[in-house]
Design goal:
It is a single chain. This protein has 231 residues and is mainly beta. 13% of the residues lie in helices and 35% in strands. It is built from four helices and 15 strands. Strands 1, 2, 3, 4, 5, 6 and 7 form a seven-stranded antiparallel β-sheet that branches. A six-stranded mixed β-sheet has the order 10-9-8-11-12-15, sandwiched between helices. The longest helix has 10 residues. The N terminus is likely disordered.
């Protein structure tokens, strides 16, 4: 059900129909018909209309099978709960892909994710040929989401993903809570980190996602979400 509206480069805004909604541990895997939207590069994001809410919610693409866009969502607030409550044949507006994704030109990728930071990893894993992955979760129930990745090493709190980092981790591509990303940043001299921030527009107009990066401020939706560390 494509609709007319905003076009930003490869990003488009369309009204997409829900195919199905699956439960994965405490998360919901929301599958939408793709329409004419480009799935983009792993690590980019889409703005999903949250029914009954004024502002959309930014979501990383989790899977991109033919004809679909799938998003892994954790119901933590009114907007995400509304998205998780969507049913087959419901329709919402979706804008994307937006932002900067992961650089896929890496020799020895290692995926590292914490909690809902697993969201972009299945799509990223497919793009990189199923490299090794380390996943961390706060409970065994949350760890059920590890089924979305093949042969990943999994830790549950109080263990940390950094405990499983090899001495020579290769090219680390990570997504997760800020403390985890900061810990990886301190241990790995060159890495790609996908950060999170509240977003209202997704394309730099509102300045709602400004974060401090190495002493200066960036709009995360424009500079990120994936920020690369210099060697």
């Amino acid at each position: 059900m494509p609709g007319s509206g905003l076009v930003l480069g490869r990003a488009r805004r369309e009204r997409l129909q829900v195919g199905e909604s699956e439960t994965v541990g405490p998360y919901t895997l929301l599958r939408l018909e793709r329409g004419s939207l480009d799935p983009g590069i792993p690590g980019q994001f889409f703005m999903l209309e949250a029914p009954g809410r004024v502002l959309p919610r930014p979501m990383s693409l989790c899977q991109a099978p033919p004809g679909e866009l799938a998003f892994l969502i954790e119901p933590v607030g009114p907007g995400t709960r509304a998205l998780c409550a969507l049913e087959e044949r419901d329709a919402i507006h979706v804008l994307g892909p937006l932002g900067n994704g992961f650089d896929l030109d890496v020799e020895r990728p290692l995926l590292v994710a914490g909690g809902i930071g697993i969201a972009p990893m299945p799509y990223l894993s497919d793009a990189l040929g199923s490299p090794p992955a380390i996943l961390g979760f706060r409970s065994e129930r949350h760890a059920e989401a590890a089924v979305l990745l093949t042969d990943a090493e999994v830790v549950v709190e109080p263990r940390l993903v950094t405990e499983l980092l090899p001495e020579d981790p290769g090219d680390v591509l990570a997504c997760g809570p800020e403390p985890m990303l900061e810990a990886i940043r301190a241990l790995v001299p060159r890495t790609q980190l996908a950060w999170e921030a509240p977003m209202a527009c997704g394309y730099g107009a509102c300045y709602g996602c400004v974060v401090e990066v190495d002493g200066h401020y960036e709009r995360l939706c424009i500079a990120g979400p994936v920020l690369r560390e210099a060697a």
